[in-house]
Design brief:
260 residues; mainly alpha; two-stranded parallel ribbon; 4 strands; 4% strand
């Protein structure tokens, strides 16, 4: 006679599986709660110390690591994510305990810290996208600037047309100042071997600002035309192109040097 009060073998297995799933869910919830509690403790400890103090800085570093570790911070694989993320950490440090740039400091009673940070992070990402879009549109609109025509005193109309564009006029002024002052000494550092006086600054001044030919410059300094051409085409072109791209131009052309 079967004892109806005893569960079948299949029922034993079902009960064991249900218990295992229940324990797993409880364990995950406990881990989440424990992580959140640790974050709150770090917030409390950080705010006990003065702004800019070493102790607060250490707790902020620990807090940031825990926030990332939680997996709840907004994440996306885009070129500007790191830039937006760094701005978010600055926002955190300035507004965690005291409202410096926000309307109010972080309030753990209102939300979790990632719920507070994620909207700010997304806004900074949106700012980056808009900035990139505007930069692309501006580059499309900006003309290609020929320094050959710019240095030609007879081609006054070309220069006037360029300067009629406020953006171009601004960058032309920056270009001339960059060549004349060479703030980082990068132009002077690129020179003919053994002749530091024949450098990219000198070449660009004479070629682009004064309209001299390479033959005239070579005669002035007593060196071969090919030597100046090599310096201009390799080193000076690279620096000039780098500067123009940093300022938002598509390209500059160097007089007397074919485009590569």
């Amino acid at each position: 006679m079967n004892d109806k009060s005893n569960p079948s073998e299949g029922e034993d297995h079902l009960s064991d599986d249900s218990d295992a799933v229940g324990c797993s869910v409880k364990s995950e919830k406990f881990d989440r709660d424990s992580a959140q509690q640790h974050i709150l403790q770090l917030v409390t400890e950080a705010c006990k110390h003065p702004v800019g103090s070493l102790r607060r800085g250490r707790f902020l570093d620990k807090l940031i690591r825990e926030i990332v570790k939680s997996g709840k911070l907004w994440k996306e694989n885009t070129p500007h994510y790191e830039e937006a993320l760094q701005k978010t950490w600055i926002y955190l440090s300035r507004n965690l305990c005291e409202a410096t740039t926000a309307k109010e400091p972080y309030n753990p009673e209102k939300s979790q810290i990632t719920t507070w940070l994620n909207p700010y992070l997304k806004k900074r990402l949106l700012d980056c996208y808009r900035k990139q879009k505007q930069e692309r549109e501006r580059q499309i609109q900006l003309p290609i600037v020929s320094l050959d025509r710019l240095s030609d005193k007879k081609d006054i109309k070309y220069t006037e047309n360029l300067k009629a564009n406020p953006d171009v006029s601004f960058y032309l002024d920056e270009l001339l100042e960059w060549i004349e002052t060479d703030p980082n000494n990068e132009l002077k550092s690129r020179h003919v071997r053994g002749k530091p006086e024949i450098n990219c600054q000198v070449l660009l001044q004479r070629k682009c600002l004064y309209g001299q030919t390479l033959q005239e410059i070579a005669k002035e300094f007593g060196c071969a035309h090919s030597t100046l051409y090599q310096l201009l085409n390799n080193d000076c072109r690279h620096l000039l192109q780098q500067f123009s791209e940093n300022q938002g131009y598509q390209t500059f052309t160097i007089p007397g040097v074919p485009e590569q």
